[in-house]
Amino acid sequence: MTSGGNVILVLLAVLLINASAFASPRQSSSSISAGYLYAKEQKKIDGSRGGIKLTDMIADMAAVGAGAVAGAISRYQIGNIATRIIAEDKRLSGLTGWHTAAINIFGSFILGSLAGTPTLDASTTKPDAKGISPRMRLMAGVGFCGSFTTFSTFSVDIVGMLNSGKFVRAITYATANNVGGIAAAFAGFNMAKRMIKK
């Protein structure tokens, strides 16, 4: 079978696995997924008893995919620009890799802002209602932020610094990522809450 055929089989398997997971309204709290949360929102909106419809599931996956593409391309481009600027100015050589920390911190701010923003449902008829739809939350949170931020690159950067004997830099980098990310998420959450109250 060609590689294209293998990709199609994998996509079909993912679709079937997701369809069976979303179709069941009985799920333990430990297995809550983005699709299940969306199904819960839909149940509140239209009173439906079952899980999420196949068309809604496909739309959810398309939204997550679109967000993921935008997030991955954004991270790639920021990395390219930062690497080029650092390569052109030797005085900035100490900043190599720090763009990953900046991306993670900014992504944490975005996700914190999303967490602080209420979810709108279809029954909301107020023209001045503030919030985002469940699908937009999936696109921006799971899709964009999920691919924009990167724990794996951060981890590999730390390992590289430790292997090079740059222990102070590794500790500083880890602290900046973790403390900066949490602080940014906290700031984003509170900013969104304040903006919604206005």
From TrEMBL:
Membrane-crossing residue ranges in chain numbering: 98-117, 138-159, 171-192
UniProt topology in membrane: Multi-pass membrane protein
Keywords for this protein: Cell membrane, Membrane, Signal, Transmembrane, Transmembrane helix
Stored InterPro entries: FluC
Gene Ontology MF annotations: fluoride transmembrane transporter activity
Listed HAMAP family: FluC
Function: Fluoride channel required for the rapid expulsion of cytoplasmic fluoride.
Name the record gives this protein: CrcB family protein
